[in-house]
Specification:
Layout: E1 5-8, E2 15-18, H1 28-41, E3 43-46, H2 53-61, E4 76-77, E5 80-87, E6 116-125, E7 133-137, H3 138-143, H4 147-154, E8 157-160, H5 173-182, E9 186-189, E10 191-193, E11 200-202, E12 208-211, H6 216-230, E13 236-239, E14 246-250, E15 254-258, E16 269-276, E17 282-283, H7 284-287, H8 298-306
Parallel strand pairs: 2-3
Antiparallel strand pairs: 1-2, 3-14, 4-5, 5-16, 6-14, 6-16, 7-13, 7-15, 8-9, 8-12, 9-17, 10-11
The structure holds N-oxalylglycine (OGA) and manganese (II) ion.
N-oxalylglycine binds near residues 86 and 133.
Amino acid sequence: MSGIAVKPIGYACGASIEGVDLSKPLSREDERAIRAAWVEHLVVVFPKQQVAPGQLVDFSRHFGELEDYASQPFNRHPENDEVMVITNKRTNGKPSPTFNAGQNWHTDLSYTIRPAKATTLFCIEKPSVGGDTMFANMYLAYETLSPKMQAFLDGLEGIHDASLIQGLEKRGPEIVAEYKRLNPPVIHPAVRRHPDSGRKALYVNERVRQFVGLSEAESKPLIRFLCDHAVLSRHVYRHYWSVGDLVMWDNRCLTHLAVGDYDPGESRHMIRTSGKGDHYGRLVEEAQGTQARPVLKGKEVAAAVDALRD
Ligand code: OGA
Ligand code: MN
């Protein structure tokens, strides 16, 4: 039997899990109990942990194969390619490319063909106040829409575009160019059924540019409405970090936001892994039946999507 204690910490989602040391190998029973809590609560927080990068990887592997971050080759941990460093501290004498990561509502790697499943984030340093992360329950977002809107969205697909990452341009021209080169726009369903819970979740966030078959003008207000609806306060859990928190969330049924509510002169330093997802989308360019082309930008994406209408 597992000795872990699971306690809800938010109404929309979120539970703390105590009674397990994640720097040690995980027993089958604990793994099973953690998985069940994760499926039920979507975000699980393990307080007072102390894990080295390799231990974070060992823990994360229990929840699936890990992402090698080929689509974002920045800020890898020097000891481990499967670990990304999310930090505002200077890296190799330069501003960190992840200093403003996650500052619009998103779900990890949705702008890639194979978006992430689990993400783990372990807090090593935090500012004296703020630097919070918010999570929105996308099952609730879907379930609280009218049946007609649900039916409409069930048949819709969104175009996810890395160039809509908030503040991407602040990371420097080389990084922006590489990011866009590696991440041309991709198509994913607007609603996804979660393989473990069987529930449908809205899969639309602020990195969606347009819906396939709708014009840009038709798409924009709908995307705005869905993003606003998804993050109503009653759908959201806000995590106030403590050093030693290891948080694991499910990108298939949540969106999240790095609030950025802290003094940039203070350090915020975390390490992260992402699990490879079980769902594959497709490239806009492939859907068009064209050869690989340079990354589509702004209006070109709209034109390409319009061409997919029939
Ligand atoms: C991430 C992310 C949020 C944060 O690492 O994917 O969005 O608060 N982080 O750092
Ligand atoms: Mn993220």
